[in-house]
Write a structure and sequence with these properties.
458 residues, Rossmann fold, Ribosomal Protein S5, domain 2, nine-stranded mixed sheet, 25 strands, 26% helix, 29% strand
Length: 458
């Protein structure tokens, strides 16, 4: 007879304990431990899908064909994935509710099926007719797309053996369950075991598996942290639900870079690719004569991206001044403010400072330091930055401007969008003569402020 075991599992991090305790010792969360009864049998469902792939091979004898990466029909998604979906890989797509995860995957499924591939779409949260309604709106229609409304993973495995698809989509991992675990679907044990079964299916049957996951209110993927370690690729679909822009960002990718981002626009008939995100973000820039507004050139993987940084500096009415950052790391903002106070002489101790990166972009690279510093300084002095100028550079604690990577790509992007001037760190090497844009090299923060400010005040 199978052995029945009761344990308490933290629904936030997956920590297990034989008895109830109020606070999780691992993640420090209160009230997140729930009692689960797990049935351990001699043969698990994960073991039942394991197949013999043949003898052990030398790595030099393994052949890789060109078809190992399958294009998704979206160049932006292929960019984030590293060229397409890899055969036998397990991909996790996470995002806020209503952001468009199911829309993206259903459109991708339609694109893949047009190439003759067979795809099984398991909708654990919707009925088949509900998926059909969304497919009609998105103009998705294919004889190779199978829809299966089911939450039991063993039933899904039976359909996989019968249909033999090349791609499997699970929407979502928090809604499916396996009979080997007695806890309810969405629990830590169910998510971990179901993902383990899907990983065995992907590796041993050479099926590409795409799993959609929910996120918590803190923005983390719901379920144990081990879930992200088990999959090959983790992608976040993010953006403001009140705006049409959507960003696809990879935080783990065994087959490509994790620095790439994909940009989409949510339209009436589904998601549309944005091949030139810089141009899209520049269209939203209306008031170019406002103090504290600058354009910076950020680098996301192989792509240079121009975004607007806005700063607002005003006298505070609080005992201690406020520091607020949106789209920027808070500690980096504090560091830049400290440099401006010490090296430039700005008295910001009695002023609130608000910094915002427009378009919903998250900037975490040092190349944005100079642009953020200039936005704060010009707003404090109530002067206007030259609207035809792009700012690039890292600010050190001594006030020096340091060099950044991918500088030429950033300059070319600024030139392509019609900007007349770019401020960059002073380089020891000579730049190319192919630029049709004025290049100003600076070595100190005070020099950059002098070079970028327009001659007339706001």
């Amino acid at each position: 007879m199978a052995k029945v075991k009761t344990k308490w599992v933290c629904q936030n991090c997956g920590y297990e304990t034989p008895k109830y305790i109020g606070k999780c010792p691992d993640c420090g969360s209160w009230g997140t431990l729930m009692e689960e009864t797990e049935v351990r049998s001699s043969v698990t469902s994960a073991q039942s899908v394991v197949l013999d792939n043949g003898p052990v091979s030398l790595i030099n004898e393994i052949e890789i064909t060109e078809s190992i990466k399958l294009p998704t029909g979206f160049e932006e998604l292929d960019r984030v994935l590293g060229g397409g979906l890899v055969q036998g890989s397990l991909v996790l797509l996470a995002g806020d509710p209503g952001i468009g995860k199911s829309t993206l995957i259903l459109q991708t499924a339609g694109n893949i099926c047009t190439s003759g591939k067979k795809l099984l779409y398991v909708c654990a949260e919707e009925s088949g007719s509900q998926v059909k309604l969304r497919a009609q709106r998105l103009n998705v229609n294919s004889d190779k797309l199978y829809v299966y409304s089911q939450t039991n993973l063993e039933a899904v495995i039976n359909q996989i053996d019968e249909i033999k698809p090349e791609i499997l989509v699970i929407d979502s991992i928090q809604s499916v369950y396996t009979s080997e675990i007695t806890s309810s679907s969405g629990s830590v044990s169910q998510i971990r075991e179901c993902t383990n079964i899907l990983m065995n299916i992907a590796k041993n049957k050479n099926i590409t598996v795409i799993v959609i996951g929910h996120v918590t209110k803190d923005g983390n993927i719901a379920g144990p942290k081990v879930l992200e370690h088990m999959v090959d690729t983790v992608i976040y679909f993010e953006g403001d639900k009140y705006k049409s822009q959507r960003l696809l960002r990879s935080i783990k990718n065994r087959f490509g870079s994790t620095n790439e981002i994909g940009v989409f626009n949510m339209a009436e008939n589904g998601l549309e690719e944005v091949t030139n995100p810089s141009e899209l973000f520049m269209k939203e820039r209306t008031d170019i004569s406002s103090p504290g507004s600058v354009i910076i050139a950020s680098s996301e993987g192989t792509r240079a991206l121009l975004v607007e940084v806005q700063a607002l500096v005003g006298a505070t009415s609080y005992p201690s001044p406020r520091r607020v950052s949106t789209g920027l790391e808070f500690n980096r903002l504090l560091q830049i403010i400290a440099v401006l106070e010490k090296r430039i002489g700005l008295n910001l101790s009695k002023h609130d400072v608000y910094v915002n990166v427009t378009g919903g972009i998250e900037i975490d690279e040092p190349a944005a330091d100079l642009g953020i510093a200039l936005a704060i300084a010009t707003c404090y002095r109530n002067v206007v930055v030259d609207p035809n100028c792009v700012i690039i550079g890292e600010v050190s604690l001594s006030g020096d401007i340091r060099n950044v990577s991918n500088l030429e790509k950033r300059i070319y992007e600024a030139q392509k969008l019609g900007f007349k001037k770019v401020i960059i760190p002073k380089l020891n090497k000579k730049l190319s003569d192919n630029y049709n844009i004025e290049i100003i090299q600076v070595s100190r923060l005070i020099d950059a402020i002098t070079a970028c400010v327009s001659k007339q005040k706001a």
